[in-house]
Design goal:
Blueprint lengths: L1 E2 L4 E2 L11 E2 L1 E2 L20 H14 L4 E5 L6 H6 L13 E3 L10 H8 L2 E7 L1 H8 L9 E6 L6 E6 L2 E7 L4 H7 L7 H5 L13 E3 L3 H5 L30
Parallel strand pairs: 1-5, 4-6, 7-9
Antiparallel strand pairs: 2-3, 5-6, 7-8, 9-10, 10-11
Amino acid sequence: LFTDVDYLYTSNPRVDPTATALRVVRDPSTLEVDTKVGGSHLGTGGMATKVIAARAASCAGIPCALLSGEHPERIYSFLRYDPSCESSVQPEGTYFMALEATQNISETRRWILSMPVSGELVVDDGAARALCSKKSLLPAGVVSVSGGFLRNEAVKLVHRGSEVARALVNFDAEELEKLVGVHSAQFEAILGYRAVAEACERSNILLTVAPESLRSMDVPSKLDGSFSPSRRVSKVQSCNSFSSG
């Protein structure tokens, strides 16, 4: 990905003197940078678009490079870089590491993992068990809503303070706040229109923790101590959660 700056920064270096260059992004799916302020007229698509593209490539198991279009020769520094070797010289740009995947998951779920997170839904114990059993998330199992997300944006599903899944949400934040803990039979009276029963449909949910931690109601730990959705997709225990879609 060619751009008009040397690296991806935590914020726009042209307006923020505290912006920090990111040389190697090991966890692309959890990357949070401020891309609201635009760059020069030389860029194409904007930095936010490039970050989304890099996330999508990474989640598909493809490493990605972002570098200045004024110095295309810097691409060779990426070809020489070995992320598995600590002494390897870092590339002249930003390197997005690929997520290793030895297990087949649907393209939809890879896409969800690559999307920027727009909010969080805190779920209760019953909803957490349902997620592990390959079921949809209902508003009745949602404890609280945070963020200003819109319908079909990606959200984190949180249980007892830890992220347990990523999902696409069927309501915007304002609507879902009205439905927290409510049975679907009441949705039409509350919203004024007939709505789907699920806050997040099962085919649009990706577990990011070991299913056993949800069954036992322990505070979820990362899979093998390593899977944030940012690390190895291959570490995700299926609990049949990847078998459909």
